[in-house]
Amino acid sequence: xxxxxxRLTIVKQTEVARDSxxxxxxxxxxxxxSQPGQFLHVRVDESEDLLLRRPISIANIDPExxxxxxxxxxxxxxxxxxxxxxxGTEVDVLGPLGQGFPLEEAKRGEEVLLVGGGIGVPPLxxxxxxxxxxxxxxxxxxxxxxxxxVFYEQPFKQLGNVHIATADxxxxxxxxxxxxxxxxxxxxxxxxxxxxxxxxxxLTARYRERRAFISLEERMGxxxxxxxxxxxxxxxxxxxxxxxxxTDGPVFPVGEVVL
Amino acid sequence: xxxxxxRLTIVKQTEVARDSxxxxxxxxxxxxxSQPGQFLHVRVDESEDLLLRRPISIANIDPExxxxxxxxxxxxxxxxxxxxxxxGTEVDVLGPLGQGFPLEEAKRGEEVLLVGGGIGVPPLxxxxxxxxxxxxxxxxxxxxxxxxxVFYEQPFKQLGNVHIATADxxxxxxxxxxxxxxxxxxxxxxxxxxxxxxxxxxLTARYRERRAFISLEERMGxxxxxxxxxxxxxxxxxxxxxxxxxTDGPVFPVGEVVL
Amino acid sequence: xxxxxxxxxxxxxxxxxxxxxxxxxxxxxxxxFFDLNQLGAIAIKATTKEARFGNETPRVAETKAGMLNAIxxxxxxxxxxxxxxxxxxxxxxxxxxxxxxxxxxxDYIEVAAELSQQRNVSAIExxxxxxxxKQGGIAFGTVPEIAAELTKEVKAVSAVPVYVKLSPNVAxxxxxxxxxxxxxxxxxxxxxxxxxMRIDAKTRRPVLANQYGGLSGAAIKPVAxxxxxxxxxxVDIPIIGMGGIQTAEDVIEFLLAGASCIAVGTANxxxxxxxxNIIRDLPHWLDRLEVQSITDxxxxxxxx
Amino acid sequence: xxxxxxxxxxxxxxxxxxxxxxxxxxxxxxxxFFDLNQLGAIAIKATTKEARFGNETPRVAETKAGMLNAIxxxxxxxxxxxxxxxxxxxxxxxxxxxxxxxxxxxDYIEVAAELSQQRNVSAIExxxxxxxxKQGGIAFGTVPEIAAELTKEVKAVSAVPVYVKLSPNVAxxxxxxxxxxxxxxxxxxxxxxxxxMRIDAKTRRPVLANQYGGLSGAAIKPVAxxxxxxxxxxVDIPIIGMGGIQTAEDVIEFLLAGASCIAVGTANxxxxxxxxNIIRDLPHWLDRLEVQSITDxxxxxxxx
Lengths: 259, 259, 304, 304
Ligand SMILES: Cc1cc2nc3c(=O)[nH]c(=O)nc-3n(C[C@H](O)[C@H](O)[C@H](O)COP(=O)(O)OP(=O)(O)OC[C@H]3O[C@@H](n4cnc5c(N)ncnc54)[C@H](O)[C@@H]3O)c2cc1C
Ligand SMILES: Cc1cc2nc3c(=O)[nH]c(=O)nc-3n(C[C@H](O)[C@H](O)[C@H](O)COP(=O)(O)OP(=O)(O)OC[C@H]3O[C@@H](n4cnc5c(N)ncnc54)[C@H](O)[C@@H]3O)c2cc1C
Ligand SMILES: Cc1cc2nc3c(=O)[nH]c(=O)nc-3n(C[C@H](O)[C@H](O)[C@H](O)COP(=O)(O)O)c2cc1C
Ligand SMILES: Cc1cc2nc3c(=O)[nH]c(=O)nc-3n(C[C@H](O)[C@H](O)[C@H](O)COP(=O)(O)O)c2cc1C
Ligand code: FES
Ligand code: FES
Hints:
Oligomer: heterotetramer
Shape of chain A: globular
Strand content of chain C: 15-25%
Helix content of chain A: 10-25%
Bound molecules: flavin-adenine dinucleotide, flavin mononucleotide, FE2/S2 (inorganic) cluster
Largest sheet of chain C: 8 strands, parallel
Order of helices and strands of chain C: EEEEEEHEHEHHEHEEEHEHEHH
Largest interface: C-D, 46 and 46 residues
CATH class of chain C: Alpha Beta
Number of helices of chain A: 5
CATH architecture of chain C: Alpha-Beta Barrel
Structural class of chain C: alpha/beta
CATH architecture of the largest domain in chain A: 3-Layer(aba) Sandwich
Number of helices of chain C: 9
């Protein structure tokens, strides 16, 4: 029986962009984490008014220090409460969960395009680090709503070229990540992406036949495959066919499931 | 409109006996507090699983520092959570509420007996301090379950004679406060008491015709007289007659209400 | 503040916020905390023909995100309310919704007839759903025909508009609401409390002296929203929505579900400033949702 | 561990704790967290005749101290369950309670007949109360006569004992329970979820794609306890109690109310170790209450 739950201690919590927090947790459970694109199912606190955990992606891992980093937007009740927690507090974490990005798809020397939108950017950072370790060549295209929302530009720069787009044009290129890809004529051997559904749809339309992998979001109950909350339809599948985002995903090859 | 709600800051929280905590709060609202026997209706924290406030008596006031002390037993869900809160945290407090002990009943030079049981002891401390200031002579009889539960013996000693009783005989006189009063033949001009109902019943049976005042407990909703949760019957009253413990009490002359 | 105004039968409200019956006494207590004239209306505690002590204590118990109450309709009786409680509202300019209850149809009729003639009573709230009254009460609220008959009788004698307060402890809330509308009710109030209980694991006994009590608070909000959503699509009379409202955002949810105004019950106990805080926050929500008036939101989850 | 044992029709349980249907899949997921043999029993996800996708997403929403779900009975269908899911329990020594659902009486009968003959199925849990199935389902659970007829038909074909799972969305739970007992049920399971909804104030739309969903979790515990307290005093068949159970203390409350064993639903999502933790803590509660066996507590709030 592999241990999948633990209490991790907050060692750092900082606002890295408007309402976006970088949370570093430390503890033994981190030993079990290594796959980029997997997520943690985080209990907000011990009080009993918010019963559901929050799924948040792994943004980085430091195996030596047994530390895991997440970056999340404090938008609703739960994440706001999480953001108010101080260093030293313990957080109840389930994970690592799900199927992450397939690292082995990008061979040494291949061109990889990381395409992230908003709060979908975090898992791409750890993915990029691992890909660079493996000898892939990484270009990142990161889209945000506006300048105040941009984070992690510098860390991504250490992995390779970075293009930033903002919807309101207040920073980087104006428009969406797909605009940047077109304008810069960016090409790739493998593409990995995480972000809002419209972005994933646009990428799917363009790259249905390519080696491309996307990470999806859905409201979750259990996070472990038991409750059937997080299913999606399969493209060209039978009416009752499905994939569970929590256990079959959150990462799928482009075109496998209906967005 | 008199201000009755405020956010006070925890300046001290210490365990003074088994599961019993002394909590000192500081803030502007303390200005409005002066009557011994009144209580504060305390919100446990900001989470929304425990909607009801907890009524806790004022145990001491330092008007200069704008500090109020409460002593409470961490028994149930709410008080346990309160006990876990650290110095610096703000606590949402409603109060002071209710009718406290009538100070003016004890004239200068009169003999006062304070009779407290368990977690009913705290309000008697501030009462005793005020009575001594007024020139009354104070004797305290304090009952606890056992030695581990005893608190505030020293502070009470500064007010006058103190007799401690423990139900299991592990400290002071074995037995109940009423046993001590009998054995020591303690007499008084005015008696003030707070503690468990059986104790209050025994005192009522003995001192129905005397100048005696007792403080009652009941489960509360609003704490301000609006919800009718905390009523009690009136002795020899009509069937529908009542007193509200939160606004008519918690202190009543002995014999006024049905215990 | 016109953006918050709403005009309902008998109730000209400055804003859609009133305290719920039984959670605000007869007004004076919370009048210590804020100016009652800020409120859209006030629903006062249930009045019965005779003075009642109600149930024995303990009468309230805490539950997760909720509470149980078994007050048992304690009140000073019709004459007591008329003589001691109502005159106090002379000093205020806020419509009063007088909640009435009884154990027999005759009781209801007598109380409605007399109370509705008092100055300071703007409308009647017919409580056919209090789960804590042993005789009568509960049955009125669960059988459409009886609820309709009672409504008709009370309407016949009432000098002011009549709102009927529904019990959520039913299988088909729409059937009851429609029967009551047909019987002539001017509006509905929903929901009253869900019947529940707590047991003390240590003493092995029910926590409430009355064993069962009414569950209120945030815990029941999803049930309230669902019932209002169902009923508002099937009736044409306005609904006073309630059940677990704590914030302006909650109010928006209720308006979108189909309520025309709302009442705040249990949340007053958690924070006595809940009503004024909601009134303060509502305009920000209107801005955010880019609507001019709260009336633009009523039923917005299904009528757009 | 004899103190925790309880023997019910078809279910020889080491302890009174089972995961609730729909909250534990078909077992394998939580099998990664602890040894399923620790459990008293396992209630598996509802099986319908054909494979079902269920409702569109979002299918869950959070509420204060609770959650809404509108899964819509997704499952691989009768043959899928028999071929893919049930064989996995060959490796375990724990009774399986197979929850079944359908939209017509014939569906139920067919599923019950075949599923009840499978090795690894110890008893049937007849779900007549799922609020998320549009046709049929809900009506079965709210009308005593229909509930009774369905029970009778399923009993007639089932090779194992039948527990009927009641809907709480009714005015008179006792009438339904008695009708079902009379129709031959071996036991009752209660409660299923309360029908509720959430509206997103920002988008102005219901949060769930299906609009309504079933409310579960701590929020509904008081309603569950009240219903079990009412029903257990009026029927002689055992009750599987559920609704918001999170701790061993909650379990004691349910036993005292009149349940013979309990199921844990939503709490598995908050903490996957809820069931084993409860099983670990129950003996301490027995010590504290000075009773030898959990059977000494059943109905203890009213039968002592
Ligand atoms: C696999 C996965 C990975 C994710 N990684 C990240 C990440 O790295 N950083 C980040 O900021 N966000 C991430 N999200 C989204 C994140 O889970 C939600 O933003 C968060 O749950 C919202 O909680 P709340 O308390 O702010 O909102 P509330 O409105 O209080 O949430 C109420 C309920 O809805 C759920 N919910 C609300 N929005 C979403 C959403 N977009 N996706 C899933 N559930 C939702 C919550 O989990 C909760 O159960 C991820 C989601 C998934 C499924
Ligand atoms: C006027 C007054 C003054 C009090 N002063 C003190 C004091 O100075 N120190 C102290 O330790 N205790 C005092 N109490 C008792 C104190 O209110 C309860 O111990 C406390 O509310 C229990 O909360 P909990 O979270 O521990 O228990 P829980 O079991 O979680 O409480 C659940 C609910 O029941 C209520 N409740 C439970 N026990 C009591 C009780 N004995 N009296 C009233 N309500 C109860 C709680 O307020 C809450 O609403 C006083 C009570 C009253 C009425
Ligand atoms: C302590 C208390 C007393 C109540 N008394 C009454 C009453 O007298 N008449 C009535 O119609 N409803 C009464 N109610 C029900 C409330 O008016 C309201 O319908 C219910 O509590 C749901 O709203 P909430 O969740 O905001 O409290 C009472 C509720 C509580 C908590
Ligand atoms: C996600 C989810 C799925 C459920 N699926 C089923 C089901 O398939 N069949 C059934 O009888 N009950 C189902 N239920 C109801 C539970 O079995 C249980 O009766 C209810 O959730 C109350 O218990 P709880 O508060 O512990 O969750 C489901 C509940 C949830 C939360
Ligand atoms: S969240 Fe429960 S199955 Fe995916
Ligand atoms: S607690 Fe509400 S009237 Fe006393």
